[in-house]
């Protein structure tokens, strides 16, 4: 606790002199020795008020003595933030003017002026000062201090300074450490540095006295504090022009391990050339510029960046820092430091919601003008007919789907034949086709074919299947239907017709009607409509037909139930688990490295999850952007 006092009387001293008590009526500390003598020591800022001893008090009920507890620095910091809490601080001055209170104790004077004991209350409650009195007293104090500093100047200079006294600081002395600024002082060491420690230089008695005075002043201001650092540099003094001693520190040992600042210094001849033909010159001399800026606080880096710490998170770093350090807005500082740590941004997992809200595609103008396509497969083993894949084609307007069995290894030309045979023949050429980046859809043949027919190809972004989400959902629904139907024979291609009928007969939540009705404006008749028991003539029933009807009914029932459940899941709000991205052109971002082949010499488990830094230079879409290296 840096109070600027030689010592503070504590509990052991009070126990030794049990007859010590405070007389608040006279603002004195009463000391009674074993010899029977009584001493009165005034508190800070008070004088002893001589008063006659009061008459002996009447017997009364003894009041309990106040309890004394030892508080930690954190508890003390909590107390001083409360209102109406009073503390007492003890000072030591002029003690040797009194006789020693105990013959067994001897006081040795260490200074020319002997110390004494005094105590003053310190309250956390500060009454609101009067504006008039505060302003006037401050102006008087500044005027008096300015007059003291300008007393030795010439009258003309003194009058000029007094005329422009408002440009001078309110106080010529420091009241504490400088405020937080954008610039902080730091010393960067070379990687292979060695701790340097040098013995102190021999000082004369006046120099030792001056060193002690300056150190006490720096301690009082908070510029320095006691340290047990292994680094050490000696001090020496240089005499100024006015005869005072300037404190200098020999940092030549430290300079050998310091990274040199290679910023070019201005040339003297160039500076003199700039001053040519000038008649008036001005210079600014910063008073004690050595103490104008703070040292960079490395406490957070020590408890977060070191390998032995492991780049722990915000809460753990704050807990470790708070054990030893206290400063204003410490929590916000640690939070921002951890959030801006480059290593943590590149390595840690992203715990936030995925960026980018769902951007729906434009609604087509009519039926079969825009379709989406996707493959399901490979489905191993292949069926007896050689089918091991499915081509799913969905009309984006009516939601009608076509399921075509095929081979997974078909070429782009085979895909074109299927599309022309199953889609173009019945519905005409579409204006646009949406698909993923399957090699068959991105091949030169497929692109050139649709350039000839005037069909626009729209591909989804890499690792972004939401663009082709309609076909993905149709494929998932078809898979659920076939999973319920296909059991033993695994001949799923024989049941595609039933699955397609069931899918297109179900009501779509997007259109409010079935895909069949939206496409054909009527409900096509299907075998199940004529196989209901009420529609059968009694003489048409037979055991074989009844089994087939039951089989068809079970398939249609299962298909309808599963399609209804699938449509309900699809109707859930897509943006519930998403968040809009905050990025804009010019921002520096990190790139997700999960799907990129980087750091080939590092184990996949220990590779960085992000790399960069890259800068956004163009917005391609509402949630897509093009980036470049930030160094370009």
UniProtKB/TrEMBL annotation:
Domain (Integrase catalytic): residue spans on this chain: 358-523
SUPFAM superfamilies, A to Z: DNA/RNA polymerases (SSF56672), Ribonuclease H-like (SSF53098)
Example of a GO biological process term: DNA integration
Start-end of Pro residues biased regions: 51-65
PROSITE patterns listed in its UniProt record: INTEGRASE
Region of interest: Disordered: 47-69
PANTHER family documented for this protein: PROTEIN CBG26694 (PTHR37984), PROTEIN NYNRIN-LIKE (PTHR37984:SF5)
The protein, known as: Integrase catalytic domain-containing protein
Organism: Chara braunii
